């Protein structure tokens, strides 16, 4: 029964995370333009920070299934990050591609780590 409950929680979180990703990505693209993949960066940083906070808070299996695996898993996107970087390279925007790749990884790790530490201290 636990596997079924966890699976349903992952499904529910994933549905919400996918919608949030779609809305945030679209909004950021419409306001910041498309010269850089700012929408992908925004959802990845949001998801990384949220996952860091959840892990730092020491939430249990059900919360991690719903919010971590489900919501954050559907909110963030490594494959689109890679595709955006390849598109920048194909367009000859090598500097922007490098900034996107390195910046996304470093900022994502920083968002996770900072919120993990903060929520670990609060716990």
Automatic annotation (TrEMBL):
Na(+) is not transported, but it plays an essential structural role and its presence is essential for fluoride channel function. The chain crosses the membrane at residues 36-54, 101-119. Keywords: Cell membrane, Ion channel, Ion transport, Membrane, Metal-binding, Sodium, Transmembrane, Transmembrane helix, Transport. Its main location: membrane. The keyword Transmembrane applies. It is a multi-pass membrane protein. It catalyses: fluoride(in) = fluoride(out). It is found in: Cell membrane. The keyword Transmembrane applies. Coiled coil: none annotated. Na(+) binds at residues 73, 76. It holds the Pfam family CRCB. InterPro entries: FluC. Belongs to the fluoride channel Fluc/FEX (TC 1.A.43) family. HAMAP family: FluC. Fluoride-specific ion channel. Important for reducing fluoride concentration in the cell, thus reducing its toxicity. This is Fluoride-specific ion channel FluC. The gene is crcB.
